[in-house]
Amino acid sequence: MVEYGYPLHPYFTEMPGIGKELARTLKPNIAELQNAEAEVAKEVERVKNNGKATEAMNEKGEWTAWQRLEYLVDPGTWCPLHTIYDPLENEEGNTGVIDGLGRIAGKWAIIIASNNKVMAGAWLSGQADNVLRVTDIAKRLHLPLVWVLNCSGAKLMEQERLYPNRRGSGTPFFRHAELQKLGIPIIVGIYGTNPAGGGYHSISPTILIGHKKCNMAVGGAGIVSGMSPKGYIDDEVADALIEQTKAFKATPPGRVEIHHNGTGFIRDVCDTEEEVLDDIKRYMNTLPAYDPQFFRVAEPAEPKFPASDLYSLVPFNQKRTYTMQEVLARLFDNSEHMEFKPDYGPEMYCGLAKIDGFLCGFIANNQGAMAADYPEYADYQGMGGKLYREGLIKMNEFVTFCGRDRIPVVWVQDTTGIDVGDTAEKAEMLGLGMSLIYSIEQSDNPMMTIVLRKGTAAAHYVLGGPQANNNNAFTLGTAATEIYVMHGETAAAASYARRLLKDKEDGKPLDGTIAKMNDIIQQYHDKSRPVYCAKKGLVDEIVDFPKLRNYCKAFVGSYYQNPKSICAVHQMLTPRVIKG
To answer: Which residue of 99, 262, 301, 399 pairs with 334 in a disulfide if CB–CB is 3.0 to 4.6 A?
Structure first.
């Protein structure tokens, strides 16, 4: 008889508990957070409803990208990213693609769909950068990339905003080649007309699946018929274009007959919308992936406490404090953990937890006042959210151990920055902050970040922020998120304190300078809101509080699906260092 179990089970089957039942709900705080979430939801609906009406497309036998994704992705696993990302403020209000992390036929994948409701899925400004951002995740997590393609080429009226440049519209095709070089497959289901950039979208993946009415071509009918103009348009040229367009409309270049029967580029041809997506699922079934049991250290378990508690636990008011461990108790399996050095560097939480039965590292900013004698190098009391010497050393150690043991890391940021002043400089804050950046880079370990509330100053970088391009898979925000180099009032003081002094010494009125300072404060407020952060790409998505754990499960599950390197659980050091 074979007795099945889990590796190093005395460490992980039952870990110490964390958190407690919520004593009371805070209705005003709940309302403020949910109102902020409603603002984000309104922007998401605007993106979904932009362009052609769904009903009109369905009447013509065409599904929208949203409907295709709903059919393709396993129920309950879709974690959208970049939904309202629009860094260049397009008139369309988004970049023309929908992307995220989800499971297809039981396997995690990065999925990108052309938004065929808007200009038949054309390349829009910012789209190349969006594609690079999300394919960064495929690269970091070694995940297959799936395209649901319907791309009519570039928005020609704005070609200078999207076609050229180092991260312009051709860059994703090089990224596709890079992913394939790394052994990461790309599967594409092709719908509609895909000329020029849409053609390279179609041909650059690994597996090409075509709808029977699709085409892909170096150039479309309009390009072919407009190759030899006089340099201007007159009646003669217009009439010639009309006749040539009629011919090409009847038989557009790059049809299925050409690229299935002729070139053989398109591997499969499908009659219906559903069959294309079913074929994607079939190919996903052929891809390598470990059975989850290979890496799980315990049975999956939901937290002991409901995620809805987060609305009461996380204050919308940035000046109020809270207990970070209560937040983490709503994320961890069975609300259990193993904390790393709890009595050292108390401003930082570092520890191991289980997410869906998988081992994961967590690093978070503890909140509230520290002990009167902390930090030990200073004559002032430390406050949670700020980084001090011990906390930076502790994080360096923990990141290094997780890298050695190949344990993915989730960062939960709520930081006001790093300790400053001559005392802090003598305590090596600058060098220790850079040491943490080095430790992250050296770990070669996948990470995700939740900016729970504040992401401030260099602490936003060193706490696994999105600037860690080789490690950070994605960064999430919440309804309470604010991201800025410093608080608005601090920025105003830093910018105008000397001016105030000079005005005062010169006997000038202070009204004008005070007005400019208040303008800065308002700008910092407006440009740090959750919606702004998502539109400009400061975070990859704003997520409702109850859904944060879903993204943690997606991240950790993706990491363990087909990792590039493995440390056997019984050979790990991190749990042994914690347990002693």
So the answer is: 301
Is residue 216 left, alpha or beta, with left meaning phi > 0 and alpha meaning psi from -120 to 50?
beta
Report the alpha-carbon distance of residue 257 to residue 253 in Å, rounded.
10
Q: How far is CA 324 from CA 338, 347, 402, 453, in A?
A: 15, 10, 21, 11
Which secondary-structure segment (H or E) carries 441? helix 429-443
Query: Quick one: the chain helix, strand, coil %, rounded to 5?
Result: 45, 15, 40
Q: Pull the structure tokens for residue 309.
A: 């508690």
Q: Within 10 Å of residue 170's Cβ, how many Cβ atoms?
A: 14
Q: Could you read off the pLDDT of 151-198 as tens digits, one per residue?
A: 988 888 888 888 888 888 999 999 999 999 999 999 999 999 998 888
Q: Strand ranges (DSSP E) for 268-311?
A: 268-270
* Encoded tokens for 212: 């029977």
Q: How confident is the model at residue 223 (pLDDT cuts 50, 70, 90)?
A: low
Distance CA 510, CA 475 (A): 41
- For residues 4-31, average pLDDT: 95
Can you list the pairs that 418-424 forms with residues at least 24 positions away whose Cβ atoms lie under 8 Å? 418/386, 418/387, 418/392, 418/457, 418/458, 418/459, 418/462, 419/375, 419/378, 419/382, 419/386, 419/387, 419/388, 419/389, 423/377, 423/378, 423/379, 424/378, 424/388
Q: Give the tokens for residue 195.
A: 């000329």
H-assigned helices in 149-232: 159-162, 171-181, 197-203, 221-225
CA atoms within 13 A on the CB side of 573: 10
CA distance 185 to 178: 10
pLDDT at 304 over 80: yes
> How many angstroms separate the CA atoms of 275 and 126, rounded?
31
- Provide the angle, in degrees to the nearest 10, between the axes of the packed helices 273-284 and 65-72: 40
The pairing of strands 97-104 and 107-114 is: antiparallel
**For residue 550, what are the contacts with CB-CB under 8 A and spacing of at least 6?**
79
Pairwise CA distance, residues 539 & 263, whole Å = 42
What are the pLDDT digits (tens) for 123-164?
Answer: 999 999 999 999 999 999 999 999 999 998 888 888 888 888
Cα–Cα dist 54/59, whole Å:
9
Q: What is the pTM of this model?
A: 0.94
Q: Is the dihedral of CA 532, 535, 539, 541 positive or negative?
A: positive
Helices (H) and strands (E) in the chain, counts: 23, 20
Helix, strand, or coil here: 525?
helix
Which residues are paired to 456 by β-bridges?
484
Calculate the CA 223 to chain-centre distance: 36
User: How is residue 435 written in tokens?
Assistant: 């040491």
Neighbours of 306 (CB within 10 A): 12
* Cβ atoms of residues 341 and 396 within 8 Å: no
**CA–CA distance, 113 with 542 (Å, rounded to integer):** 20
Give the number of other Cβ atoms within 10 Å of residue 16's Cβ. Answer: 10
What digits encode the pLDDT tens for the residues 48-89? 999 999 999 999 999 999 999 999 999 999 999 999 999 999
